[in-house]
Amino acid sequence: MDVDVDALSSRLTAISSAQRMRIIALLEGERLHVSELARRVGMSRALLYMHLNKLEEAGFVTGHLELSDDGKALKYFEVVPFSLTIDAATLVDAVAKSNADAEGAGDTQTGDN
Questions:
Q1: Which residues contact 68 (CB under 8 A, 6 or more apart)?
Q2: Residue 91 and residue 68: Cα distance in Å, rounded?
Q3: Model-level pTM?
Q4: CB under 8 Å to 3, separation ≥6 — which residues?
Q5: By CB neighbour count within 10 A (0-12 exposed, 13-18 middle, 19+ buried), where does 52 fall?
Q6: Cβ atoms of 98 and 4 closer than 8 Å
Q7: Are 81 and 27 in contact (CB under 8 A)?
Q8: Rounded distance, CA 45 to CA 34, Å?
Q9: CA 15 – CA 46 distance, rounded (Å)
Q10: Which has the closest alpha carbon to 80: 7, 11, 16?
């Protein structure tokens, strides 16, 4: 995983919720529309959308609108294939990338004076 420490932290934060883990488990191998997913996880659609937005921003799920036979717009979500490896090497690499990015940004800001 070629990601800096902030991006890794954001991804881990998004997946660290037990409710969001349940959502991913329900969506694995099956796409569901929001109303059905809300019934299965036992939460309001408004709260579910908050969780889905976090998961979508982190790249774990994707959503799209489809029209039903009766013309209603239904938002369907599905899991985006992903793999997370969290070990010491992953953390070291993420911190090193962040440090290198910060040093590179400092070089462009100072320029030749």
A1: 74
A2: 45
A3: 0.79
A4: 11, 94, 97
A5: buried
A6: yes
A7: no
A8: 7
A9: 19
A10: 11
Radius of gyration (C-alpha) of the chain in whole angstroms: 19
Give me the residue label for tokens 């969506």: 27
Residue 89 DSSP code: H
Cα(64)–Cα(99) distance, integer angstroms: 37
DSSP designation for 61: E
82 within 8 A of 59, measured Cβ to Cβ: yes
Q: Which two tokens stand for residue 70?
A: 């009766």
Measure CA 27 to chain center.
13
Q: How far is CA 3 from CA 6, 8, 51, in A?
A: 8, 6, 23
pLDDT tens digit sequence for 22-69: 999 999 999 999 999 999 999 999 999 999 999 999 999 999 999 989
Q: What is each CA distance from 11 to 2, 8, 28, 64, 79, in whole angstroms?
A: 13, 5, 18, 21, 14
Can you tell me the distance from the alpha carbon of 94 to that of 48, in angstroms, rounded to the nearest whole number? Answer: 30
Q: Distance between CA atoms of 85 and 83, rounded to whole angstroms?
A: 7
